[in-house]
UniProtKB/TrEMBL annotation:
CDD domains: TMPK (cd01672). InterPro entries: P-loop_NTPase (IPR027417), Thymidylate_kin-like_dom (IPR039430), Thymidylate_kinase (IPR018094). One of its GO terms (biological process) is dUDP biosynthetic process. It comes from Lactococcus lactis. NCBIfam families: DTMP_kinase. This is Thymidylate kinase.
Length: 251
């Protein structure tokens, strides 16, 4: 599937531009940008043949405590029951989650430079896309727990402008299906506190932050996103999601 891609119709131009950057960076021995070019080159090559594929990239977004894990597990089983290949993954990866700078912020709210954490999240996403999503999508549907929209929602609440977040995440593929599980922030917080007890994250102690993140999600989600009231009940939400996915698959 993947009918709408940001590089559609412009991939050759992008490749030429990146080659110029690559040559310049090679001459100046700027290895960081040389490696960054290589990652983007893989992405562009991917865009060139991806439209022929029939598998879906499905991403789930929502506040912590919105029920993403449950619905992802149920959708995975739905694909299995239909004898369709499916693979689950998540963003960010454990590499990002276990980084000391990230842990200091999540646990204690300590963040000397929030932009550096946003850069780390973008690099982690690029690595996960090139190492997991790209190799798998040709043979399997993919369900991803969180995606670019989480970075937009959370880092905007942490003080970084949308444009800056998008800039450092250029080249991220557009999903076929985006599911946002909507839940009142106070209810999500109650679920998280019941689940995690004393181990709740710094941001999970503040309902105002949860309210802001939810609003940010609603601001940045694509127009074709499926927004589901996750308080409707597990089975009802699952039915809404599978009906939507089926419609996309039939197009």
């Amino acid at each position: 599937m993947f009918r709408k891609w940001s590089f559609s119709g412009h991939s050759s131009f992008v490749i030429k531009t990146l080659k110029i950057i690559y040559i310049y960076c090679s001459l100046t021995r700027n290895l960081f940008y040389v490696n960054l070019y290589k990652c983007f080159q893989v992405m562009v090559q991917y865009y060139q043949w991806r439209n022929a594929m029939k598998n879906l990239l499905i991403v789930f977004e929502g506040l912590d405590g919105s029920g993403k894990t449950t619905q992802i597990d149920m959708l995975y089983q739905w694909f299995e029951n239909k004898k369709l290949k499916v693979f689950t993954t998540k963003q960010p990866t454990d590499y990002y989650r276990n980084d000391k700078r990230v842990r200091d912020y999540l646990d204690n709210g300590i963040a000397p430079n929030m932009y550096s954490i946003a850069l780390l999240a973008a690099a982690d996403r690029t690595y996960q896309i090139t190492s997991e999503i790209f190799p798998k999508i040709s043979e399997s549907n993919i369900i991803c727990d969180r995606y670019l929209y989480s970075s937009l929602a959370f880092f905007k609440a942490r003080g970084i402008d949308y444009k800056e977040i998008l800039m450092i995440n250029k080249g991220v593929p557009t999903p076929d299906v985006t599911v946002f599980l909507d839940v009142p922030p106070e209810r999500a917080l109650d679920r998280v506190r019941q689940r995690d007890g004393k181990d709740i994250k710094y941001e999970e102690k503040n309902e105002l932050v949860f309210n802001q993140v939810r609003q940010n999600f609603l601001d940045v989600l694509p127009k074709n996103a499926l927004i589901v009231d996750s308080t409707l009940g597990i089975d009802k939400v699952h039915q809404i999601i599978t009906n939507f996915v089926s419609e996309v698959m039939d197009k």
